[in-house]
Amino acid sequence: KHVLSEDSNEKAAKKRVLPTFPIIPSSRFGTTTAPTLRHPLFIGDFSLDGDRKFHHDRRSLGFISIDWDQSQTKKVEYDLNIAMDKVKRKDYQRCVRENLDNLLMWILLNRYKFAVSPPPPPPPTAPMPSQHSSSQAPQQGGQPHSSSHGDATKSARPNPVRGASVDSLQNPLAASGPITSLSTDFVTYRGLLRDLMCSPYQKEGWIILATKFRRTIYLCGIDSVEKQLEKENETENQKRLCSWGFKFEQFMTDGADPNEGHDENKEYCCVLRSRLASHSLVYGAEVDGADPTRYNPPHGHLTPFVELKTNKEITTKRARQILHKFKFQKWWSQSFLVGIPRVVCGFRDDFGVVRSVQTFAVSAMPNQCQGYWSTDVMINFLDQFLSWVKSQVVEDDPNLVYQLTRQPGSPNVHCQCLGENSSAVAFLPHWYINEVFA
Ligand code: A3P
Ligand code: MG
Ligand code: MG
Prior knowledge:
The protein is α+β, with helices and mostly antiparallel strands. The protein contains 11 helices and 15 strands. A 10-stranded mixed beta sheet has the order 1-15-14-6-7-5-9-8-2-3. The chain has a 5-stranded mixed beta sheet with strand order 4-13-12-11-10. The termini are far apart. The protein binds adenosine-3'-5'-diphosphate and magnesium ion (2 copies).
C-alpha cells in the first residue's frame, strides 16, 4: 500500500512538473505546410523620444526616400563614423527594464479599440450614425470579440505614468472607460516573436516571462545574467558596430543631418493585430521609416514601410551564403511578422563606409535561402510553441509569472511557474491592471 501511495504521489508530482518543449531538430517542424499568418493589421502607433519618454504621436517617424528599382545597386559613400563622438548611444539596459510598459501604455490610451460596440439596433428608415468613425473602428483582425462594453459612465483620469501624452483621453471614445478583456490571446513585441521563429536554427538562449490576465497571455523577454554581462562587457569595437547600424538609419532618413550626433534612443513603433492559426496576437514593433511617396494614412498595413539593415560588403561566395543563411533569416522573419515588404541594406567596408545600397524584396528571401531555412519550420514552430505556452500558462493572475527558459544550445524550452517568487519579476504595472480593466 505504501509503495502504491508513493507511486501515486510521484505521478501527481510529475503532473505538477511542467513539461518541456523541444526546439530542435528543426526538421520536426517542417513536415507540414505552415498555417498562414493573417496579414498584420496596423491598429496604432506611438513614439519614444531621446529620453525614452512615451508620446502618443508620430514624432519619431522618419521618412526614407529611395530608388525602388530592385535590380539596381546604388553606389554611395556614407561614412558611418561621422560625428560618432556626438552620438547618444542606446541604453539597452534601460530598454530591457521597460518591459512591455510602452506597449501597455498604448493599450491603455486605446482601450476603446478593444471594446466591442453593441449590436446595432435594426435600422428604422435611415442608417444610424455609427458609434465609431471609420478610422477609429475597432480593428479586429477577424477575431470574434466579447460582447463586453466599456463603462461609459467612468470619466477619464489623467494618465499617471511618466508624463505620457493624455491627448487621446480627451477623445470621448478613448475615454470610454475600462474594458473587461482585450479579446486577444497574446500581447508582446515583434522582436520576441522573431527570436522565437529563428530558435529552431539558433543556439542562442533566451528567457521569456509570461503572465495571464483576463484571458490574455503577456510575453515579455528579459536578459539572462550571461547576456547582461555580455552587454556590460561590450568592447568599444562592438559598440561601434552597433552604432554604425543606427548611423546608416540617419543617412537614409530624409532631412536628417549625418554631421549631427545621432540619438539612438528615439523610436517609432507600430502596434499590430494578427492571427496565426488559433492564436490571436497584438504586438508592438519598432519600425525604421516609411517611403514618403507611398505613405498615406490611415493605412491598414505596413506596405509603405521600409526596414534598414547594414552588412559587410559581399566579396566572396561564402560571404553571400552567410548573408542568406543567417541575416536573411532574421530580416525575413522580422519584416514578415509586420508585413513590411522591403529591406534596404547598406553594404559597408571594414572601416564603416557604406559603399552601396540595395533593396531586397522580403517575399523573395525564402526562395533565395532554400536549403538554409524554411518558412514552414519557423511558422510551425511559432504556432506550436504558442499552443504549448497556452497549455502551461493557465492561472489567470496579473501578479503570477511563468518563466520560459531556453538555455544556450539546449534542445528544449522549460517552463516554470514562479509562484511566490513572481513578485520580483512581475511585469504588468498596477496602472495598467487598474486603469484598463473593469
Ligand atoms: P543593423 O540592422 O544594421 O544591424 P534594426 O535593424 O532592428 O532596425 O536595428 C537597428 C540597429 O540597431 C542594428 O543595425 C544594430 O546595429 C542595432 N541593434 C539592433 N538590435 C540590437 C541588439 N540586440 N544588440 C545590439 N545592437 C542591436
Ligand atoms: Mg529598427
Ligand atoms: Mg533596421
